[in-house]
Amino acid sequence: MAVGGEGVRQRQRGCSCTKADFFPEESFSSWSAYGRALRSTVSRLADRVTSRSLETTELHEVRARSGADMKRDLTWWDLAWFGVGAVIGAGIFVLTGQEAREDVGPAVVISYVVSGVSAMLSVFCYTEFAVEIPVAGGSFAYLRVELGDFMAFVAAGNILLEYCIGGAAVARAWTSYFATLLNHQPSDFRIHASGLDANYSELDPIAVVVIALVCIFASASTKGTSRFNYVLSVVHIAVIIFIIVAGLTKADAANMRDFMPFGVRGIFSASAVLFFAYIGFDAVSTMAEETKNPARDIPIGLVGAMTLTTALYCVLAVTLCLMQPYSSIDADAPFSVAFSARGMDWAKYIVAFGALKGMTTVLLVSAVGQARYLTHIARTHMMPPWLAQVHPRTGTPVNATVVMLVATAVIAFFTDLGILSNLLSISTLFIFKLVAVALLVRRYYVAGETTTANRNKLAACIAAILATSTATATCWGVDINGWVPYAVTVTAWFVSTVCLWAFVPQARAPKLWGVPLVPWLPSASIAINVFLLGSIDSKSFMRFGYWTAALLVYYLFVGLHASYDTAKALAAESAIAKVENGDDKPARGAVHNGV
């Protein structure tokens, strides 16, 4: 792609690797140009903070920057199995044991319900956006349209972190179950580096090999990946049914008597971590660009997959806790060890095999989703446009796939699962909260149509919803005793939502499929996601803060200037095209709204 007199156009169809593919913008043409760009950082930042993209821009101009098109050959059946394959993996097979033993006890089933409700609310928000804006960028594209470039970039960085960490966590869990399958301990297949910190000293070469194989599959063909995922997912569901049936034959109701040993706080603390088990459905939304009929296929695929997943999680959690006292559950391979403890040692091999199948599909769908996120981010030049190239033969973003999986492999090689799951939950809950806010903005605000008074009322109501949700989470996080503070903050959240419902008219109705009960469902999604954030430990928030700070440094020195140049070049080109077509009114909206 070239930015300048030629505008923003695709120069080549193949996947090349030149300076122009990484930094084609005017700001990076020379050191003096870069110096001028840095001196304009404040004005450019102000422009990008207030700039919002247009739906048509995301659907046409931005998508065209990848050169070759992605192939539209996915149906609701593909999406539903992608959803099942993306979600059911390390969360249920690893974190269930960890949380039941250490944080919540048999009440882990309630934790799964809480996390599932939060995930389903987010699924509704994602589905409306994916149907209305069917592009590969997923939540990044949705936030660019509704909340602007800057907020979309902050979310984009956390989206990429979410996928890298999620893939790394699943890859390390893959090693644990592989060891069980071969009658070994996970540590037998890891290399202990005594010179490193304890959380980063168990090196995992098997995880790296698995990620490399997944990279090859994901780069080859999306439809082929879908077929492979379908086969693995069917096997996986069969193993889950076996676990439930065989496990319940060894059930002992006495194991459920001490149902809430860690109290209500334990339930919500575990819910925040177990949210990791539901991560993956957002990857399905990135496949909207490759879906034959988004309006029909995406709602069926996403909502259907999440409903089935939540039901299976709850039944599996109950089964595990009926088989063993919570204090005896193994944190690394809970189901395999539970069968061994109940005299069904042979069953642990079936469980381990099913877990490996499930985690393989999670890695596969994650690889497909994360590459499409990165592709669309690179289309806006917030990341080097070389990452946006789609291979003309395979119809897949090979460059983005390889880069994301290399980063995932590096993290998987070093980092402990406990650190990964907590940090992953923060990034994901943060993004889901933003998507719910964006949906409220989409329904209640249309530039040029919404009055200033209604816009201000909308902003005040959203600020109040966020503030009251944060207040509730803060009370929980600092462990305030008594019900009075919660009665005040929850009532204030309810009043804020009522005010939005009663006093701000909706400015837009969904064209094809819409979230029901707006503003209640998006507002509830915001409240639950923020509340679960308040249950995560402080060290994870510190790591999240370091990552966000690093993102801002990159944005101020690179991403801001690249995306600014690209937006202005495309806006100028659009204005010229209008004049050439006989319209002498320049497209002021294109410059104001950004591209």
TrEMBL record:
Topology in membrane: Multi-pass membrane protein
At the top level, the lineage of the source is Eukaryota
Keywords, in A-Z order: Amino-acid transport, Membrane, Transmembrane, Transmembrane helix, Transport
One family name in Pfam for this protein:
AA_permease_2
Keyword Membrane listed: yes
Report the residue ranges that make up the Cationic amino acid transporter C-terminal domain in this protein. 513-563
**Primary localization:** membrane
Q: Which InterPro entries match?
A: AA/rel_permease1, CAT_C
Q: Which family does it belong to?
A: Belongs to the amino acid-polyamine-organocation (APC) superfamily. Cationic amino acid transporter (CAT) (TC 2.A.3.3) family.
Name by which UniProt lists this protein: Cationic amino acid transporter C-terminal domain-containing protein
Provenance organism:
Sorghum bicolor (Sorghum)
